[in-house]
Amino acid sequence: MSDSRISTDIDYDRDGKQVGYLNVPNSTNESGWGTLLMPIAVVKNGRGPTILFTGGNHGDEYEGPIALMKLLRALEPAEVKGRVVIVPGLNMPALMAGQRLSPIDGMNMNRAFPGARRGTITAMIAHYVQTQLLPLADFVCDIHSGGRSMSFLPSAVVHRLDDADRMRKTLDAARAFGAPVGLVLKELDSEGMLDTAAEDMGRIFVSTEIGGAGVVSPATIKVAEIGARNLLVHFGICQGNLVTREAQGLAPTRLMAVPDGDCYTAATENGVYEPLVDIGETVTVGQLLGQVHDIERPGEPPAEKRAKRDGLLVCRLGPGRVRRGDTIAVIAVDL
Amino acid sequence: MSDSRISTDIDYDRDGKQVGYLNVPNSTNESGWGTLLMPIAVVKNGRGPTILFTGGNHGDEYEGPIALMKLLRALEPAEVKGRVVIVPGLNMPALMAGQRLSPIDGMNMNRAFPGARRGTITAMIAHYVQTQLLPLADFVCDIHSGGRSMSFLPSAVVHRLDDADRMRKTLDAARAFGAPVGLVLKELDSEGMLDTAAEDMGRIFVSTEIGGAGVVSPATIKVAEIGARNLLVHFGICQGNLVTREAQGLAPTRLMAVPDGDCYTAATENGVYEPLVDIGETVTVGQLLGQVHDIERPGEPPAEKRAKRDGLLVCRLGPGRVRRGDTIAVIAVDL
Amino acid sequence: MSDSRISTDIDYDRDGKQVGYLNVPNSTNESGWGTLLMPIAVVKNGRGPTILFTGGNHGDEYEGPIALMKLLRALEPAEVKGRVVIVPGLNMPALMAGQRLSPIDGMNMNRAFPGARRGTITAMIAHYVQTQLLPLADFVCDIHSGGRSMSFLPSAVVHRLDDADRMRKTLDAARAFGAPVGLVLKELDSEGMLDTAAEDMGRIFVSTEIGGAGVVSPATIKVAEIGARNLLVHFGICQGNLVTREAQGLAPTRLMAVPDGDCYTAATENGVYEPLVDIGETVTVGQLLGQVHDIERPGEPPAEKRAKRDGLLVCRLGPGRVRRGDTIAVIAVDL
Amino acid sequence: MSDSRISTDIDYDRDGKQVGYLNVPNSTNESGWGTLLMPIAVVKNGRGPTILFTGGNHGDEYEGPIALMKLLRALEPAEVKGRVVIVPGLNMPALMAGQRLSPIDGMNMNRAFPGARRGTITAMIAHYVQTQLLPLADFVCDIHSGGRSMSFLPSAVVHRLDDADRMRKTLDAARAFGAPVGLVLKELDSEGMLDTAAEDMGRIFVSTEIGGAGVVSPATIKVAEIGARNLLVHFGICQGNLVTREAQGLAPTRLMAVPDGDCYTAATENGVYEPLVDIGETVTVGQLLGQVHDIERPGEPPAEKRAKRDGLLVCRLGPGRVRRGDTIAVIAVDL
Amino acid sequence: MSDSRISTDIDYDRDGKQVGYLNVPNSTNESGWGTLLMPIAVVKNGRGPTILFTGGNHGDEYEGPIALMKLLRALEPAEVKGRVVIVPGLNMPALMAGQRLSPIDGMNMNRAFPGARRGTITAMIAHYVQTQLLPLADFVCDIHSGGRSMSFLPSAVVHRLDDADRMRKTLDAARAFGAPVGLVLKELDSEGMLDTAAEDMGRIFVSTEIGGAGVVSPATIKVAEIGARNLLVHFGICQGNLVTREAQGLAPTRLMAVPDGDCYTAATENGVYEPLVDIGETVTVGQLLGQVHDIERPGEPPAEKRAKRDGLLVCRLGPGRVRRGDTIAVIAVDL
Amino acid sequence: MSDSRISTDIDYDRDGKQVGYLNVPNSTNESGWGTLLMPIAVVKNGRGPTILFTGGNHGDEYEGPIALMKLLRALEPAEVKGRVVIVPGLNMPALMAGQRLSPIDGMNMNRAFPGARRGTITAMIAHYVQTQLLPLADFVCDIHSGGRSMSFLPSAVVHRLDDADRMRKTLDAARAFGAPVGLVLKELDSEGMLDTAAEDMGRIFVSTEIGGAGVVSPATIKVAEIGARNLLVHFGICQGNLVTREAQGLAPTRLMAVPDGDCYTAATENGVYEPLVDIGETVTVGQLLGQVHDIERPGEPPAEKRAKRDGLLVCRLGPGRVRRGDTIAVIAVDL
Question: I need a labelling partner for D254 at 20 to 30 A (CA). Which of B144, D193, E177, F197 fits?
């Protein structure tokens, strides 16, 4: 069935719950005939749509792996009508290392699609997802968290699509996820993303940015857990009711957009970044968002970073250390 | 005056404000006659006590460097009666790298005291502080933030001292700092710390843990800034009034202790850590604090981590990735 | 004649014996105009078939390089009718480093075919073999030894071929080699191998696995030396008689196969592997082959590894350290 | 207009002087949304030809970056008729690291053309030059200096071209540059060079080798500065007169060639190289150029390296450390 | 009781069986408050002597860790009279990495004694053994296996001691161990060894070299298992009979010595080593032991390595790759 | 005689010429019983003084190793009255790597004295020189060349000594060496140098700085060769006449001093350094020596570096890449 170099004992067509591995060839100096064992689970029950959940696309984003490991243990075939495929650690070597990129080949999984059959580890995994998993799926949810460097107001993230019907279905899904924000991005450099791969096949695709800075918290994990469950209900795979934000006593998901380059502010200096505005705060054009201190010349005044437009600060640099070219702030506006 | 290999143009006895460098010999393959230039500032005016402020003892803790760079720019001799010595980046190579330990010699600055004249970079810097700066100081404040792996409820931290008078003066200073918590630690492994070096010389010493996880925020920077200014007033070096917590509409500093080993919980598994309780929450013995998921075997139940005593969660593991032996929680009790 | 970036002073058409170099462009930070000098030898005398011998395809397998260096020194044109091309260190940088993969580009030479003219070092070498050496050859013998991680019962290794005539000729050559075992593999992931490159061009191809674990011994070197000489006689390039196993007082080569996935056992745990059966021993289904001890939790019982079918243990993990996904045993059955 | 992943604020069609950046996407573990800011300048005034100057193609060659940074600061639109595009650090990460190859992907920029839109950093930059900058240019000057390992008699370097008219124009430009030598190379391995990319588009292309060994000097910087200015005059972009060698009291540019492989001498030993002839000296066939001492066996006589033809030594190994395959001498002959 | 920085929950004075950890402080960039958990077990029953077993002193020697993990699981207090302390992985970080030296500080555990309280990880562990474990012990057995580079005829190894009574007791213990060889070494460079530390405290000390080359086998593991059990019986800690070599149908332990420098042969060339004699074979002075082939110049004759005295080859280089200064053979003579 | 861990076959008391090795224990992961073989030669004839020549104290300074390897091959016992000890590569691992510091332990040999018996490789070598070689010597000459980062006007270098007689003898030796400059340094940070070790034992000590920037040339090698031979004559070990500068048609050695900190200029910026004055040129206070260009902000004016006193530029930064704290110029004045 497959011409991937990756094999598995999982039978995607079998009813029931299977927790197993993708066997990714990984010949190293220490293990000539070594294999990377990458966990995967399938919960299937009869006919119905298929959803693919992925976490750990970047290895320093933990809400996805945690929520999905809990989901794969909790979910029973009897609850399901259709099929749920769960890959809690898509860039498994990166997740094991606790870093964004694969320590084996240095690649960013989310720019590696459609992958390559005989490429490096990351490219082989992307190729497997592209050729084996995406064709099975009707819906795809890839749970991101900002990663080590970025701290995000928890958001369901979707792309602007040309097809109005798919755009509406995608927005409905984003709202169903139940994060504080539903963010519509016009991705400038989307080639190679899992998002693009899924959308190009016509799948309904929802990504997220939930927290970040390489840190996890009870609150952000809860967003991911509720969101994943809500999608199962929303797409008709599980019975039951959505856990709405209203039911949790929260404001409804705020639909917002990041329409242009003025939403982004980048550092053009090396140093230590002092944020003066936190995520979730409203900013106005010209407002001081933060400043970069030159640790090598502390007597010099810091470089000021100001908002280039009005809006809500949905993302900011997490760590204090900043290098030229780092994104330090993203402003969103209501849709 | 000194037998340190480190030289400086700073004259510690001169009135006025000087921002300069410690010149730390650093012969490398690329630069045989290279020097590490490590910023230092002195603001002096007449007679009066001396306070030494240090930040960046660990290079991934940014509140100290930011607050101290702002202080050294803002502080003018006319405001001062006595002397303020500021080292915003004590482990400068670590701060430049944005990591805890020195990338040059791999050393932890806070276990390097009293240092060594002909040791590695970190040992030479510790030796300079030990032999040149501590003798000048009456008071020492070393601003920490938890670092990449630990997330701390902002605290002024002091050690239990045998001398009741010094203990009282130290607690007074901790309270004056104005953090949410004043934490009295019985350090189990205190040899080599700047704390110990300063205390052994009879200096009044206050450390802090403000935030952490390698992340900075407007709120935690503010704690450091107010705290440093408050100490200047408290020790009589600057005129004016303390910015009390009450004046900020906040609860007074809560004095707490970490009295024994049961306050600490460590992981004995590798995996991804899911915190179930956040810092600042009250816990009771036996309560589930979090759990470790085995990302290599996601089908297995997670390892549960429970509180070994009642108290307040003042510190928890920041990142999701956890390795055997990592501290994942610290519980404190009211003094 | 060639569009490879690799040049050589060797004239493959000249009678006599030439020992020279392939000049592989290798621009580095230390040597902008550097060249990797990769030894090659040709012994030619008049008309007749050509055999290509390669060793060091993996850099931690030494029987091939040793036997071939001795052969290239000993072999004189007068003994030869046809042509013998010898590359004792195919992945020369890996051989110099004593490791499986190239230290320059991290590549596995035996998955790099057909290579690429402008690829990395490994890809350039593969491309040269593909475009310059394989076209010259009628017969190809690539001497492997298991490598650092695997220990093999000395075997001539061939693949199952669809063409019955070529299969027969290949088996005859494997038998002529004179190793204890002649192993017929159905390679699951053969793309990129030298084997595949040679077979796709219609060459008679024999590989080997002689010993391994990164260790050499007088006995295994002898297998490689006799085998290489035997092939020269068998293919009619040298005169004389085969050094048969019978003449050495040994049992004849045992023809065996590795027909399916049940022949392979892999570790799914990290730890230290204790083999309980050695290569050359007969095993029955369910028999305990070895066990993995968790060095981090030595009080726990080890994970048992059992044979999934009857047969002869022809290969096992060499070192004690084992990681998830490592192959720990290969069982073969009589053909 | 472009499908490069690299963006810029520079408007190549706007009159005036712009100094800005190419924004090269560079997602790392420390900065997920990071960008490499690569300086570029454009000085434009009305209609006229375009010249593209590049330096830092190899990151350890400094005459180009220095001369071009000075030129971009000094050059005013009023002096120009046409357009001058300046990239002082083409392999910016390599220049920052002071090494030949990119520390990010290990690539040699001058073998990376035509690059790849979704390749590594070096490939992305090459692709931008290929698709965005070369199409704008009529003339291209890429300033090299030999680099860490090679020391060169300052030379303008051109390739032998089949088209006599372009050959003549190219030689005229090389002469106008005003270096001591004008060197016509028959490049053996020219695929992937910026030279080839420019020439294949029909641009007049001049490269240089000015000094080298990773060392800069007032004299070699002067050659680069005068040369760049002279080309602006020669191509009619700036007014004024050439600063001829004659006007400087120097011998005219000597046109020479490196016609064949005998011009090159390489080491076949590891050790320390003792040059016995310096660049700029005349050599005769058989003359001892230098010798390689085996530092591990200093009692052994050194390996002698002799000239394989008469000519002028235009290039020699700079550092004492030599490894097998290093080029140690290049001899040129008068054209 | 201890001034080590290492703590443990183990109570060495408590009867029964305890399997726990030494907690070694290990502050890293990823885990500021991290701890290395190093397994240790104690089996105690009433009064009687104490034996300390250590394995994994070098991290690439596996017979010790395997035999000792099996022993600690199997041994019950009821079998014991006295105390058995077991450290299966003395250089735990090295054992986890599968290499000789600690990957954390690069140190050789067996040259780190007496260690240092505030030294690196290896020095701290050595210091703990020196100050906490050796004082408890009457007998010490440190199980080595040759390691990655050396292959040893399985031997119990002891040092020549000046005290005749202790020499006799030590030889008795070596014989009781039951390895093929009992080897009396005059160690030339013994400072810093665990051996020396134990002997200097007056403990009866037996070391071993069982196999090696980084490879484990059923046969060598059996030697270690029987040997450890035999020592328990021999020293009167366990009841029962020795498993003698005679009872196994084997020749008795051969007592041998390595009396002088002529027993050792070292390589003075880089290349690939071809052994011509295997361990366990008898050699005569002048006999060719093996030869070093220069892989960079395969046409040159190899360097011959000859025996400098008569005797038994008890040890040889394991891997093919050899570097100048490597020991390639050790010859022993009957005592 | 020695308690060094380093052994040798050399007999320092034997007449004749011996070329051999110091055997430095070097246990590595690849070679547990490995040894660094470090070349040494002794040429002795009867009674007379002893001179110790060392080269390669820094591994990127080649004039010393080349001149000393040639000397050790050429020098015959009959020419000598007394003893000549030659260590051409004092930091042998650094010399093999072509870098300043040891790649094994990262140490600077010239700050490692008096070394340590059980220290790292560099410390062990320093300890051997301190305890075995310096006691044998009456005169010591350590040939340096500036190294990768510094380019020096060829100089014999001595220190200001308190003892007038030894100062005179030392200056006589420096003059006899015959370099263009004889430089009297007041070393600010001399602890740990071979110089200091030798001087503290009362030896007459001459060092050099000949060229540098990691580059060798025929001219600088000649200075080293003539200098070494001249010292042999000057100290009465060899017969014959000095090769004086006058006899070579050169100006006599210019005795100069580097009296204070104003002689040194350092960079306080990162960037690329453009020297405007070359070594050997006279400078006046305030003169522009060079400028640092900020390659990240090429539009900004460069940082100017000016002479702080009148004198001769005897040393300047070699490479273009400059980092904060690098020395960029040294000015000397006539004695």
Answer: D193
| Same domain as A211, residue A98 | yes
Domain count, chain D: 2
Residue that finishes a domain, picked among F258, F289, F308:
F258
Structure tokens at A145: 């968290």
The pLDDT of residue C131 is above 50: yes
Nearest to D191 among C32, C37, C118 (CB): C118
- With respect to residue E2, please indicate whether it lies within any of the assigned structural domains: no
* Cα nearest neighbour of E75 on chain C: C299
| pTM for the full predicted model | 0.96
Does the N-terminal peptide bond of residue C93 adopt cis geometry, omega within 30 degrees of 0?
A: no
Print burial letters for F18-38: b (CB count within 10 Å at least 16), e (below 16): bbbbbbbbbbbbbbbbbbbbb
Residue B123 lies in a domain: yes
F212 touches chain D (CB under 8 A): no
Which run of H or E residues covers position D171? helix D164-177
Among A227, A243, A258, where does a domain finish? A258
Query: The domain spanning residue F244 has which CATH number?
Result: 3.40.630.10
Residue C141 domain boundaries? 7-258
DSSP state of B253: P
Residue B238 sits in the same domain as residue B297? no
Question: Are the beta carbons of B30 and F324 separated by less than 8 Å?
Answer: no
Q: Tell whether D298 is covered by a domain.
A: yes
> How much is the ipTM here?
0.95
Q: C55 in helix, strand or coil?
A: strand
Best of E91, E100, E145, E264 to mutate (most F CBs within 10 Å, chain F): E100
A109 plus A250 within the same structural domain: yes
CATH number at residue B301: 2.40.50.100
Q: How far is CA E133 from the centre of its chain?
A: 17
Per-residue pLDDT of E101-136, as tens digits, reads 999 999 999 999 999 999 999 999 999 999 999 999
Partner-chain contact E275 C216, CB within 8 Å: yes
Q: Does the CB of A38 have a partner CB in chain B at under 8 Å?
A: no
For residues D297 and D215, state if they share a domain.
Answer: no
- Nearest by CB to residue F277, choosing from D69, D218, D298, is D218
- In chain F, which stretches have pLDDT less than 50? 1
CA angle A183, A184, A188 (to 5 degrees): 120
**Residue in B23, B29, B34 nearest the CB of F99:** B29
| Inter-chain residue contact E268 with F37, CB threshold 8 Å | yes
Q: How far apart are CA F149 and CA B33, in angstroms?
A: 8
Name which of A23, A32, A118 is nearest C147 (Cβ-Cβ): A32
Q: Which phi and psi (to 5°) does residue C45 adopt?
A: -150, 105
**Residue D2 located in a structural domain:** no
> Which chain E residues have a beta carbon less than 8 Å from that of C103?
none
Judged by average pLDDT, the poorest of A314-318, C20-24, C190-194, F217-221 is: C190-194
Residues A125 and A97 reside in one and the same domain: yes
Please tell me whether residues E151 and E279 are part of one structural domain: no
Residue where the block lists tokens 């390895």: E179
The pLDDT-based confidence of C164 (bands split at 50, 70, 90) is: very high
Pick among C210, C293, C324 to test the E interface (most E CBs inside 10 A): C293
User: Does residue C158 have a pLDDT over 50?
Assistant: yes
Evaluate whether E216 touches C322 at the Cβ level (below 8 Å). Answer: no
Q: Is the pLDDT of residue E1 over 70?
A: no
Are the beta carbons of A101 and D28 separated by less than 8 Å? yes
**Alpha carbon separation from C295 to C123, E108, E213, E290, F1 (Å, rounded):** 39, 20, 20, 37, 45
Q: For the segment E173-194, what is each residue's pLDDT rounded down to a tens digit?
A: 999 999 999 999 877 778 899 9
With 50 as the cut, is the pLDDT of residue C1 above it?
A: no
User: ω into residue F77 within 30 of 0, thus cis?
Assistant: no
Per-residue pLDDT, averaged over B28-54, amounts to: 97
